[in-house]
Amino acid sequence: TAAWMKSRFSSGTLTTMQDQPMLSADERGRYARHLILPEVGSAGQLRLKSASVLCVGSGGLGSPLLLYLAAAGVGRIGIVDGDVVELSNLQRQVIHSSSGVGGSKARSAAARIHDLNPHCQVEVHEHMLDVGNALDLIGAYDLVCDGTDNFPSRYLINDACVLLGKPLVYGSVQRFDGQVSVFNRTPTSPNYRDLLPEPPPPDAVPSCSEAGVMGVMPGLIGLLQATEAIKLITGIGECLDGRLLVVDALAMRFRELTLRVDPDRPKVESLIDYRQFCRPASSEMEAITVMELKALLDSAPDEIALVDVRNPAEAEVASIEGSHLVPLASLESGEAIDRVRALAEGRRLLVHCKLGGRSARAVELLAQQGIAATNVTGGIDAWSQQVDPAIPRY
What percent of the chain has pLDDT over 90? Predict the structure, then answer.
């Protein structure tokens, strides 16, 4: 790590020690606990002040990342996020506040950072990262922190960092579990494609909005990411290059897995269509909208069977009247196949979940058992927005 920092300073990506502005009296007081650490000291604090970090996402992972990078004295921080603050975000996205609901996440995060540390220059990129802007955005910063929650974005960030030679601090969370690593620290370091050469089927790994997440998990993983970023910038310690840290919060266990470069992995030569790359190879399944479902329920309720494949806890929060709760896990185990087969006898079988991902997986599983089913796109969330606002969103 120290060698990496030395090369970064000498390459001109970061300013040299001679070119760095000195710490002001206010900064010396603010960073006093850093300055008395022999491993950091004035030299390390000046490296932090001269460094630039791009955080993609200002949600669950981005919240602690941004707060602690700013508090540590990183001189320039970029925030890429085109989303708005929602009420359900506040359980874990602690950089935002209740008063910010409905407003820009990137601007909300920037305002909080400015209040925390006015010495930190914040650059707001109020849009999503995509193939058209990734190289320009990432190219303007020393290192990147991935605070996203979907596979197309993770592959895009990784590939752009590989092409530009930028270190990437990776983190992910789901339910009570998390992962952290450092990719692409050197040209011979592993990157995200060594961890996951190909994306999993889109419905095999549900998003946090479908599977849920314990609120502190993004905080824990984001703090670990911030720790790795600070170590990389200051050149201290041993970073997670070639190592994947796996966290199980329920058991409170930390495991470390070794990551190696796959010699047979195709070389990243350009950015691609990542949504297409992460799309299932199977043909399109039959699907209907929630408005079409409403019309069927109004006109011929006895001719359809509506199966809800969410978890029982979700069904307690909200449900569509007349639906049959059959959790996806019971279909995957085979336990509920006969029950669904009976429900489908003489009726059209429709399947829904929260957003449409798990129900698509259920339709595929049922097709393997010879049971035809139709996916309700958008799930109960779309139903709440387009059909019945009295159904609570979660």
Answer: 85
Question: How far apart are the C-alpha atoms of 119 and 12, rounded to whole Å?
Answer: 22
208 in active site:
yes
Count the helix, strand and coil residues of the chain and give each as a percent rounded to the nearest 5: 40, 15, 40
Q: Is the pLDDT of residue 202 over 70?
A: no
Q: Which residues pair with 180 in a beta bridge?
A: 171, 245
Of 218, 210, 193, the C-alpha closest to 274 is 193
Contact residues for 19 (Cβ-Cβ < 8 A; gap 6+): none
Element (H, E) at 254: strand 253-258
Query: Is-contact 170 182, C-beta < 8 A?
Result: yes
pLDDT at 1 over 50: no
The H-or-E segment that residue 340 falls in is helix 337-344
Dihedral angle at the C-alpha atoms of 133, 135, 137, 141, nearest 10 degrees? 170
For residue 113, pLDDT beyond 70: yes
> What confidence category does residue 203 fall into, taking pLDDT thresholds of 50, 70 and 90?
low
Whether 353 is catalytic is yes
| Rounded (10°) CA dihedral 221, 28, 4, 189 | 0
pLDDT in tens, 319-349: 999 999 999 999 999 999 999 999 999 999 9
Active-site residue, selected from the candidate residues 120, 161, 208, 239? 208
Q: Concatenated DSSP letters for 128-166?
A: ---TTTHHHHHHTSSEEEE---SHHHHHHHHHHHHHHT-
Mean pLDDT calculated for residue range 45-50:
97
Exposed, middle or buried, 35 (CB in 10 Å: 0-12/13-18/19+)?
A: middle
What Å distances lie between residue 184 and 164, 179, 261, 273, 356, CA to CA? 10, 16, 10, 21, 34
SS3 label, residue 300: coil
How far is CA 209 from each of CA 150, 212, 236, 286, 346, rounded to the nearest angstrom?
A: 11, 6, 37, 24, 34
